[in-house]
């Protein structure tokens, strides 16, 4: 799967001043609503929280992959946020998260689409140097370059 086709460049941001989960979700929902990728900020945010309640989305090394399957999603996409500072998050390694790769998937789409998308992101993150580039990014272009 070509990540260039799924990463929403209008929903990539650095130096985000979020201090908690609510502020991270508020930021991503604002970006996706403004872009027209979602139809309801509250509905998508609620679906993000539902997924969070099912298990940890922090994969470690400062990276979290929250995701929501929602009828509010008009266009499947990935948003990427790098926070100004790491925040507490439920992660596999118990460390705070600073980089958020957020999936917005329409609930009507087949599970295999989501799984293929998740596998593509996991494969990219497993490539040597990708996580370091992401964590060292200071611009939107740096983030996009790390994925492309």
Explain how this protein is built.
Helices cover 41% and strands 27% of the residues. It has helices at residues 3-6, 21-35, 41-52, 111-126, 130-135, 140-147; strands at 7-16, 58-60, 63-64, 67-70, 77-87, 97-106. The termini are close together. 35% of the residues are buried. InterPro entries: PTrfase/Anion_transptr, PTS_EIIA_type-2_dom, PTS_IIA_fruc, PTS_SugarTrans_NitroReg. Residues 5-148 form the PTS EIIA type-2 domain. GO terms for molecular function: protein-N(PI)-phosphohistidine-sugar phosphotransferase activity. This is PTS system, fructose subfamily, IIA component.
Please give a quick description of this structure:
InterPro entries: PTrfase/Anion_transptr, PTS_EIIA_type-2_dom, PTS_IIA_fruc, PTS_SugarTrans_NitroReg. This protein has helices spanning 3-6, 21-35, 41-52, 111-126, 130-135, 140-147, and strands spanning 7-16, 58-60, 63-64, 67-70, 77-87, 97-106.
């Amino acid at each position: 799967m070509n990540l260039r086709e799924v990463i929403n460049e209008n929903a990539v941001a650095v130096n985000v001043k979020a201090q908690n989960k609510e502020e991270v979700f508020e930021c991503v929902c604002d970006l996706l609503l403004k872009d027209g990728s979602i139809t309801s900020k509250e509905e998508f945010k609620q679906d993000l929280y539902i997924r969070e309640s099912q298990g940890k989305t922090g994969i470690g090394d400062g990276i979290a992959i929250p995701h929501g399957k929602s009828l509010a999603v008009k266009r499947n996409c990935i948003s990427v946020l790098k926070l100004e500072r790491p925040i507490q998050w439920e992660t596999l390694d118990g460390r705070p998260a600073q980089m958020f790769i957020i999936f917005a998937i329409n609930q009507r789409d087949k599970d295999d689409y989501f799984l293929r998308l998740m596998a593509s992101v996991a494969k990219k993150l497993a490539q040597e140097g990708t996580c370091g580039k992401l964590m060292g990014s200071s611009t939107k272009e740096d983030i996009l370059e790390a994925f492309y």
